[in-house]
Amino acid sequence: MSVVRPEIREVMWAEKYRPKTLDEIVNQEEIVERLKRFVKERSMPHCLFAGPPGTGKTTAALALAMDLFGKEYHKNYLELNASDERGIDVIRTTVKDFARTVSMGDAPFKILVLDESDNMTTEAQQALRRTMEMYTNTCRFILACNYYTKIIEPIQSRCAFFRFTPLKAEDVKARVKYICDMEGVEITPEGLEALVYIGGGDLRKVINTLQAAAALGNKVDEKVIYRIAGRVSPKELKLVLERALDGDFASARNEVMRLITEYGLSGLDVVKQIHREVLWLDVDEKLKLKIIDLLGETEYRLLEGGSDEVQLNALIAKIAMVGKGGT
To answer: Model's pTM, two decimal places?
Structure first.
């Protein structure tokens, strides 16, 4: 009989190590303080949680419900993903049926979370606006989104606004070290830095990448992280840029083609990573501006259907010309 490896049998680490109370949430101190006051007063308005992915929006809503309602929170808490259930029929049925029923136990109201609410259709948002107004006494709505500008103004005006920010590097490192200790995974300092680089403030992405890397062995290093994430090491891209700026087109081109083949990258992946590295280059500011302008043009051409190889070759050629003082 085959044995299922523990990391495959186990649930996703991002869910397993999700904070269960507001006290466990980090890097969002102001938001946590406001939510704690709601718990203390046992009263809250409708809320709009906005910010980049993986910064704790859904987790904050769940922790708020658990602090408010205790172990029986699930009786008065419903979470829907609006990107899947985004039509007006869902608002008229599932949402409305939950909102108009009285809360169970001694809970003052119920909480309904609409995750990815910026993916809802305009018609569904218009229906939701009226539902939020009619059933305020029995239900509070929390709308979580990445882009609050896609939420219609009437809903924004009915909600208290909470802006979530990307997590700090030190907070991400602390959580990764805690998970590694709990799971018996050894991670090198370089691997830890690579995780922070890959995540870009998205803790969920960091943890999922860590779990995938740990499945290859109990020691996680920089090379494994970049290969799992399908990203190129910043050192390798910096080398490409330096060679191109020195006018060594052939060497820079060969290195880019090698990276694409080895890591399985698309042209857009390369352009986005080069853009990130250009900002840290030790070159004249005007030269940086020219390179960023070239990257923007290349990205546009790739999005319009241009060939990855041709456009990347053109980009490297232009960077080489700019580096030699051309235009």
So the answer is: 0.78
